[in-house]
C-alpha cells in the first residue's frame, strides 16, 4: 500500500480532534455584533477563510482572551480514542502533525496534555497587543494552493513529497478538501465525507479515533503480510 514510503499523518483540529468546531462555537456563544453576515459569507465561500476568520475575531476586544480560552477549554471536548491513537502512532513510529485552521491561544492549551511537539502543530497565530484581537497567519498558501486558506494544509503537506511519504489526512470540513485531493489515504467525517463522495475522492468515514486506529492497523498489517 505505501510502496516503501514513510507514512505520515496530517490531522485537522476543529470538529476532528475536538467534538465541536470551536470558531463556530465561539461566535455563536459570544455573538459579537456583526459576526453573522461574515460567517455566512465565509461558509458560502464568497470571502476566503483567512478574511472571514480575521474579520470575525476583530469584533472581539483583546481583553476577552481569557474568557474565550476558558469557554473553549470547557466546551470543545476531545474526540473518543485520540490519546490511544497517538500512542499507536508512536509505537509504529508514524509521525503525527496537527494542521488546524484554529487559533494558537485555544489550540495550544487544548493539546498540551497530549505532549505533541510544538513544531508538529500548525495553526494560526494571534496578537492581543491592540484594542481588538488580531489573527496572524504564519502558514499561508504557497505554490500549488491559491485559496487564501489562512493556515494552508496543502502547503504543509507539500513539505512531505509523495515520492517519499505516504500521506494520510484526517478531517471533517471543506477546509480539508484541497489536502484530501492530494493525500494517499483520507479519513473523513461530516462535510468532508459529503464532498469526497460528490467529487469521487476515495475516503474512509470515521466517527472516533478508534475507528481510524483499527482501519490503519488492518491496512498496514495486510501490507506486512
UniProtKB/TrEMBL annotation:
Enzyme class, spelled out: hydrolase
Classification via HAMAP family: Salvage_MtnX
Gene name of this polypeptide: mtnX
InterPro entries the UniProt entry points to: HAD-like_hydrolase_phosphatase, HAD-like_sf, HAD-SF_hydro_IB_MtnX, HAD_hydro_PyrdxlP_Pase-like, HAD_sf
Superkingdom classification of source: Bacteria
Similarity-based family: Belongs to the HAD-like hydrolase superfamily. MtnX family.
SUPFAM superfamilies reported in the protein's UniProt record: HAD-like
The protein's Enzyme Commission number: 3.1.3.87
Catalytic activity: 2-hydroxy-5-methylsulfanyl-3-oxopent-1-enyl phosphate + H2O = 1,2-dihydroxy-5-(methylsulfanyl)pent-1-en-3-one + phosphate
Molecular functions (GO terms): 2-hydroxy-3-keto-5-methylthiopentenyl-1-phosphate phosphatase activity
Pathway linked to the protein: Amino-acid biosynthesis; L-methionine biosynthesis via salvage pathway; L-methionine from S-methyl-5-thio-alpha-D-ribose 1-phosphate: step 4/6
Entries under NCBIfam families matching the protein: DKMTPPase-SF, HAD-SF-IB, PRK09552.1
Pfam families the UniProt entry points to: HAD (PF12710)
Keywords annotated in UniProt: Amino-acid biosynthesis, Hydrolase, Methionine biosynthesis
Name the UniProt record assigns to this protein: 2-hydroxy-3-keto-5-methylthiopentenyl-1-phosphate phosphatase
Function text: Dephosphorylates 2-hydroxy-3-keto-5-methylthiopentenyl-1-phosphate (HK-MTPenyl-1-P) yielding 1,2-dihydroxy-3-keto-5-methylthiopentene (DHK-MTPene).
